[in-house]
Amino acid sequence: METKQYILSPKEAHDAEQQWRVVKRSVDARQRALKVHLTVLVDEKGQPIAKDDVRFTRYEVPVFQDVHNAQRSVVIIGCGPAGLFAALTLLEHGIKPIIYERGKGVSERKKDIALLNRNEGLNPESNYCFGEGGAGTFSDGKLFSRSKKRGNMQRVMELFHYFGAPDTVLYEAHAHIGSDKLPTIIKRMRECILAHGGEIHFGTKIESIKAVSRQHSAFRQTPVILAIGHSAHDTYRMLAAEGVTLETKGFAMGVRIEHPQELINRLFYFKGRNPGKPEYRNTIDLIGNASYSLVTQVDERGVYSFCMCPGGHIVPAGSEVETCVVNGMSASHRNSPYANSGMVVQINPEDIPGTDPLRGLAYQETIERLAFVHGQTPNIAPAQRMRDFVEGRASKDLPACSYLPGIVPSRLDEWLPAFIGKRLQQGFRDFDRKYPGFLTNEAVIVGVESRSSSAIRIPRDPETLQSVSTPFLYPCGEGAGYAGGITSSALDGINAALAISRL
Ligand SMILES: Cc1cc2nc3c(=O)[nH]c(=O)nc-3n(C[C@H](O)[C@H](O)[C@H](O)COP(=O)(O)OP(=O)(O)OC[C@H]3O[C@@H](n4cnc5c(N)ncnc54)[C@H](O)[C@@H]3O)c2cc1C
C-alpha cells in the first residue's frame, strides 16, 4: 500500500487524524513553528484513505488456541510485559502457559499502591514493581524502543491495541498509554490467558528454580521462562546460589528531576516565547505537553535524561523496605502541572571494584539506603532545588512536587557519590547551555533514580535463547539484561516463546 507524508500545523494534523488512516505521526519541535509530520495511507490516485475504510485491515488479529488439554506447557516466572507477551504468544502456538507471580492481581495491587502514596508503608511483594503487569502497569506506558533490531516491534503495539490501547499506539512515534488505562489492558490479557486454559498464580514467589523445574517436569523437561524484571534482587541471589550464570552489566543511576510543565513547554516547544497566549494553549490541547530527551558526556560517562514523563508524577518505586527509590509515571492525558524525568549517569562494570557478578546490585542498594536515611520514614524522599544542587547550597525550602508521600530538604550534592553527583552537576550545566532556563531553582531533584536499568545480565545462547549454564531456562525481559522498557521486554518475551515453540 502506498503512503504519503504531510507536514502540517497541529490543528491541521488533528483534523486530518480524525478523517484519514494515519500510519505514522511525530511532532517536530525543531523549527520556530511547531509542525506535525503525518504519514497516511493513500489509494492509487494518491488520495488519502478514510480512517474507517473497512477494506484496509490494520493488522492480523491474533488467534489464541484453547490449551486446556495441551500436550505442552511452559512455566513463566513473572507477570510483567515479558511474561505476559510470552504467555500470549505461547497460546497462539497451542502451548499452555503457567505463570507464577510473587505480587498480587491488579485490583489488589492498586490498594497497596494507594497506601504507599499515602506514606503508610511499602508492601515488599506488592508495589510499583511487583504484581500483575510487572513494573509496566502503573508506569507512564511509553511504548517505544531505541532498538529496531530485536524483532517485530509493531506486533507488540498491535497486541496492546487488540487488548484496548488507543489507536495512536499503532502510529505515534512516541506512543503512550498512561497509568489510568494500563491496568484494564493488563486485566484483559489475564482474562484471555485464563479463558484459553492458561494458568496464573498470584502471590507465588519462586524461591528455587530447580524445585519449580522439577515440579513441572514429571514426563518431559518443561521449559521455564525467567521474566523476573530487574528489581527482584533476592531472586538474583537465589539464581546465583543455584548455579545459574550471572554477570555484571553496565547500568545507570541518578535522580529524578521535576520542573513546572509550563516551563518545559516554553523551552522545548516555544523556544522561550510566552506559552500563556491562547494559541499556544490550544497547541498543547492538540498535541499534548512537551517532553525532552537530553544527553551529554561528562568525564567519559554518559549523563542523560531517562523515562521523561510530561504532565506526570514522581512515584515511590522501591521494592524493599528502608530504601528510597523513585521513578515517574503519567496518566493518559498527561495533564498534571509537572514534568519529571530521570537524570542518570552511566556506570560501567569496571566502575565498581571487585569481581562479584552481583556487585552492581550491592552498589544500587547502598545508595538506595543512603537516600532512605536522608529522607524520612517510611517513604518521604530527600530533595534539593536544582540550582542549589549544582551550586552546592542547602535548599531552605522546596517547591511544590508531585511526589505524594512527600519530600524533605537534603544535601544531595554532599551525600550522592561524587562519581554520580559531580557528573550530574556538570550535565545540568550542559543542558542549560543548550536550553537556557533549564537549570533553575523552580525545579527540584528527588533521590534516587536507581532502577533505570538492570545491573545484571543472565547470559544466554543467541540462537536457542537458553541460559548458558542451565538448559531449558529462558532468561528474558529487562531482568535478563537483554531489554529495557515495556516494548523491548514484551518483544523479548515473544521471542522466548517463539524459540520454545520451535523445540
Ligand atoms: C514507575 C515506573 C514507570 C515506568 N515507565 C515506563 C515507561 O513509560 N515506558 C517503558 O518502556 N518502561 C517504563 N518502565 C520500565 C518498565 O516497566 C520495565 O522495563 C518493564 O516492565 C520490564 O518488563 P519485564 O517483564 O522484563 O519485568 P517486570 O515488569 O519488572 O516484571 C517482572 C515481574 O516478575 C515478578 N517476579 C520477580 N521475581 C519473582 C519471583 N521470584 N517469583 C515470581 N515472580 C517474580 C515481579 O513481581 C514482576 O511482576 C517504568 C517502570 C516503573 C517502575
The Rg value, from CA coordinates, equals 23 Å
What is the CATH architecture term of the largest domain?
Answer: 3-Layer(bba) Sandwich
Number of domains: 3
Report the sheet with the most strands, covering strand number, pairing sense and barrel closure: 7 strands, mixed
CATH superfamily caption of the largest domain: FAD/NAD(P)-binding domain
Describe the structure.
It is globular and about 70 Å long. The model has no long low-confidence stretch (mean pLDDT 94). Helix content is 30%, strand content 20%. Strand 2 (22-28) and strand 3 form a beta hairpin. With 503 residues, the chain is of the alpha/beta class. A 7-stranded mixed β-sheet has the order 10-11-14-9-17-15-16. It has 3 domains: 2-42; 73-246 and 459-501, FAD/NAD(P)-binding domain (3-Layer(bba) Sandwich); 251-449, no CATH class. Helix 2 packs parallel to helix 5. The chain contains 14 helices and 19 strands. The structure holds flavin-adenine dinucleotide.
